[in-house]
Task: structure prediction
Amino acid sequence: MLDVRVLAYVVPLAEQVLDDITPVIQVKNFADEDATITGLIRIYRKSTDTLEYSSELATTILAHGATANIAALSAWSPGAPADDDYFILANILATSFLPGPPIRATLGAWTFDIKPGPMGPAPAAHHTTHELGGMDEIDLTGMSGLLADAQTPTNHATTHEDGGADPLNVNGLHGELADDQPALAHDIAGARHTSTATPSQILQADASGLPVDATNSDADVADAVAKRNCRANGEATNAAPTPNADTTDLYYLSALSDDATFGAPTGAPTEGQKLIVRILDAGVAKNLAWNAGAGGYIARGIALPTTTVISKYLYVGLIYNAIANKWDCIATSQET
Result:
């Protein structure tokens, strides 16, 4: 279930120097699912209660358990007279891809004031005795940095050159050198080091992030990319619908005309994998049953639905529990 909270205002500060201001709030996702954050920030002048600024927040996908600083999309330039007290209000809306309503969160008003920036003292005139030809002329010998006049570089000590008494040794240094350097033989004997990678492969990492033999093919890479997107598969009707967990994130029945008993999903699901089932009957309510055997379905606080509602969409949210070898039903949503 969504649980997203606004923790604090990051910008503005309690005492803000007069300048363009882009408000920033800190938000934390306490839930066990990712959330998409949108929202609105408003700033009011306290003395008149007038709205001075309004901006949407940058849309942010906040991973479960994560905290993020989210900025407004536009900056605020305080209007005259800017030296005044203000208060800011933030409202956010959090949504999830899992069935269920969004949640709204509000952070109470934060009062701050704007002060003109400090000007600082005017610099004193440079003493002419230190200038070129003065009685106390500055000596630049040994100094570094950019000088007013171009300086003639001193000769490089020849003892450090090739053939000198103290030539520089570049072994172990990196970066571009004056002369091309011969490549050293690549060490392929170390543990966990692969010598079999080809242009069509990428390195595979072990649990510690160390490279192992390069066995990931182009198909492996394509499969990994595909799993980043929602993979939808389904059919109009089936008396024994059976999703394939290897290829499906959303399984649908678009015109169910049979009483249906869902079979345990095929494939090799992984711990925490998510599956959404969407059902729409063909105008007649149909009975639903769910295989409770190995790799099948089980209610986890939310009952598995047993019938459709005529011509209304039904969603069932499932998460794979590898320990129990079951697809846990954690959410349902019936269109009314």
Remarks:
- The CA atoms of residues 140 and 148 lie 11 Å apart.
- The first strand starts at residue 4 and ends at 11.
- The radius of gyration is 33 Å.
